[in-house]
Amino acid sequence: MDLRFPLYVGYRYWRARKANAFASFITLFAVSGIFLGVAALIVVSSVMNGLESQLKQRILGAVPQLTVYTKAPLSDWTSAAEKLTMLPGVQGVTPSVSTQAMVQSAANIRAVQVFGVFPELAEKLSAVAQHTYSGAFNELTSGQYQVILGSELARQLKVSPGDTVRLLSGDGVVYSPLGPVPSQRKFLVSAVFEMGSQVDAGVAYVHYQDAKRLMRQPSDEINQLRLYLNDPFTAPTLAKDVQQILTAQGIEATTSDWRDTYGHLFSAVKMEKNMMSLMLSLIVAVAAFNIVSALVMMVVDKTTDVAVLKTQGLRTSSVMGIFVVQGLLNAVLGLVLGLVVGILITLNLNGLMATLGISILGAGQMLPVKLALGQLSLIIVGTLVVTLVATLYPALRAARVQPATALRYE
């Protein structure tokens, strides 16, 4: 089918002043709806992306993203680490140990998740190292019993670097005539980190060997490997590859990832993002189907013209093309306006809110914004597809015009 004639006639009809004022209003309403829906969808999606990205950085950067548990101590963990580091998406691998404990100060007592790390490796790989003062992890020395606390946890305990706290671990319980006695040691607070999330109130770091001694386990024994990933969301996929590599080396192991502790939080964020996108997409869909009303009126108005064109040999597919072009031009106009305005608002959202005096997160805090090109492409394609579907009924109705009937009284 030659598209030049339908494009030309459809464009001329689209530019021409509508004889029916109500049809013009419906068209304007449809274009405005697409414009507002697309702009709102871009802004809201970008804010939700930014929120998810910040949660990923602030929470999953401080907790194990993927952990391997071996049934027998690894005699040479570096060999397994080299194999695992070769997997795409893996930044590095370190020995790890963790325990649920209570941390007690002179003022308070709190539950905490204690992670044992090798400081020279954590300094390179852990995001927490970037949120403490320089060299904080390197100051963790085996046998010195030093601990790095989250800022909120330190505030609740009313301690600061240089103070002493007591760690009590349930993993090192011994039984006495008076009952079970947890393992406990005094630790010196060497530093405080701040990730800006809930992990600041429930996470502490100590040297790997000090953690082992606290748990009353051999300090040179390695049963866990912690994998640092480029994207924590790839952990479920990588877990299968990790187990295959370790099995090939004769190592029996199981894996766990961040979903065991924070999966519910990210599932809620993902559900909220999807529901917001669906709600705003419905605005675009309603606006797109308003084009049906405008095109039906156009078909009625141009019935005589269509009949004349069909008597001149215009094919049914070309008649459909004329009205499809009109509908798509309305969609493209609203889509382009929505993209331009939505992207501009997104890139300047915090500045606009400051100008208008709107504060959502509090003084000095900014809304996280992340503009995703993949989502923009999906919005563009989705809007055009919905509009194309909406134009099919009026186009088919125009194609079914019978010239003899339409021109009977002309």
TrEMBL record:
Subcellular localization: Cell membrane
Mode of membrane association: Multi-pass membrane protein
Transmembrane segments: 20-48, 278-300, 320-345, 375-396
Domain ABC3 transporter permease C-terminal: 278-403
Protein name: Lipoprotein-releasing ABC transporter permease subunit
Start and end residues of each MacB-like periplasmic core domain: 27-244
Pfam families linked: FtsX (PF02687), MacB_PCD (PF12704)
UniProt keyword annotation of Chloroplast present: no
InterPro entries xrefs: ABC3_permease_C, Lipoprotein-release_system, LolCE_TM, MacB_PCD
Keywords of the record: Cell membrane, Lipoprotein, Membrane, Transmembrane, Transmembrane helix, Transport
Family that this chain belongs to: Belongs to the ABC-4 integral membrane protein family. LolC/E subfamily.
PANTHER family: LIPOPROTEIN-RELEASING SYSTEM TRANSMEMBRANE PROTEIN LOLC (PTHR30489:SF8), LIPOPROTEIN-RELEASING SYSTEM TRANSMEMBRANE PROTEIN LOLE (PTHR30489)
